[in-house]
């Protein structure tokens, strides 16, 4: 990780954690101070001049802490004009990154909960079936994180239409599976207003549909793969990153 | 919590050229039968292996002194993913190139290295791994095959089972109990056993497709010189398991059904059906993600890191993916599994063998247990 990016993460992480889902409009000034809304605006345009991996870092942390202000959408809108395809694509990348962050947070919450909650005289986390569910969850969270990173790199290289479709679809599926497991291992407490799991799973539910749901992206991706033909699939896939 | 940290994979500059070389070689000498292109790393073709050796595509990272080519780990990764994506018959040399060569180079004495490694790099010497026993599958520490010291020699007695390629291999690297009365992970050592040594016998096990890939291997008073002990006496458990965790995340963990995915795309080119478009999109999305994940682990390994947890996740997700493909294709498209259409026959074959994908190299249950431990459960 570059120094700028580490600095960015070290600034954003504690601030987002502090503001959390309860952030209000009066908190914008704290985000403005750090220049975060202008993250993707060039330095020449008085912005932060970040690249897409920097954006991934911020989007992911906003998702992780279920930040209650639409900072991510403001960053997307500062870069691409609303209503354009480029805006829709950048938004899909942002949602994939937010999903990745929220899944990691829900996973951490779930692991902490099952290690603490005792039933039948031992922590839930001692039961193999609970362990295996959380292992599945971890793999889904990992896939979403890798997919989001793959898009960030592709955006920095140039054309990322294929990667955006692939990543948003993968992240959408991870969002659904992860939220399911998080609620299952939490039992009734996860179903309350008081417990913070819904701050994450509620967002995951929305983010899955925003900027393209599963059917939208699977059709877009399927069409493009079929149009190129079977013999082009693997050469295309490898040539995109070589 | 972030359980899988991805970083940009810096693909080698030589990647396009290596890909072109492999694609040309596979086009000329690869497998013609589409069914045999599926799950191709179990398909042995010694002639193809020898051609890869001639082209400098085996033992790529090994020292030139032993016939290797001193290329980078990622250059090898490029070659492997190309071979697997194309369904090339890499089974004969697979274990030698992936595991046995690196293990011998890391831990073997000069005699062992000189005897076995150059032939492996030429694609003429093949290897098998002796881990499982009749009472030792996932519970690997219950090994009972024994090695008893007798002067300058070791005497081996016992049995291995599910040994892939024992019948085409020239030697086996076996995990054996070398300290009488020792228990579990203690007192185990690795030995390099020539398959033509007196007292070694191989009996085929025919799998449910009718194929002969694995075997039982028996050792009856097999006398081996002391120099065949690999690495340190008593350190066999550590040596063998270190090797396993490094081999979890290669492209073979998600590409076993790639041939069928490509047949699905071919089918979709001719039949306009929205359900098929969706399935193609979903499977393409998974393939792209898994490739990123697998390559990301490869890049970390190349830097000398030990991403054991990430590697385990790649295997679990990858196996689930390659296992799901034939099921999903069967569900999406009407077909006669007994017919001779390419799509149907590849589907029929993969439906039969797919259960093995989440068994070989560590079962799904074992992998999930490892991931859970990595998360801080247990």
What does this protein look like?
The complex is a heterodimer of chains A (242) and B (378). Chain A has 242 residues and is an all-alpha fold. Chain A has two domains: 1-79, no CATH class; 85-242, Butyryl-CoA Dehydrogenase, subunit A, domain 3, CATH 1.20.140. Chain A contains ten helices and two strands. Chain A has helices at residues 3-19, 28-33, 52-64, 71-79, 85-116, 128-157, 161-186, 197-209, 214-228, 230-239, and strands at 118-119, 122-123. In chain A, a hairpin with a 2-residue loop joins β1 (118-119) and β2. In chain A, α3 crosses α5 (85-116) and α7 packs antiparallel against α8 (197-209). Chain A is globular. In chain A, 52% of the residues are buried. By secondary structure, chain B is of the alpha+beta class. Chain B folds into three domains: 15-125, Acyl-CoA dehydrogenase/oxidase, N-terminal domain (Butyryl-Coa Dehydrogenase, subunit A, domain 1, Orthogonal Bundle), CATH 1.10.540.10; 129-234, Butyryl-CoA Dehydrogenase, subunit A, domain 2 (Beta Barrel), CATH 2.40.110; 248-375, Butyryl-CoA Dehydrogenase, subunit A, domain 3. Chain B contains twelve helices and eight strands. Chain B has a four-stranded mixed beta sheet with strand order 1-4-5-8. In chain B, strands 2-3-7-6 form a four-stranded antiparallel beta sheet, with no helix packed on it. Chain B is globular, with a radius of gyration of 21 Å. Chain B starts with 14 loop residues before the first helix and ends with a helix. The model of chain B has no long low-confidence stretch (mean pLDDT 95).
Concise account of the structure shown:
The complex is a heterodimer of chains A (242) and B (378). Chain A has ten helices and two strands, in the order αααααββααααα. Chain A is mainly alpha-helical and 242 residues long.
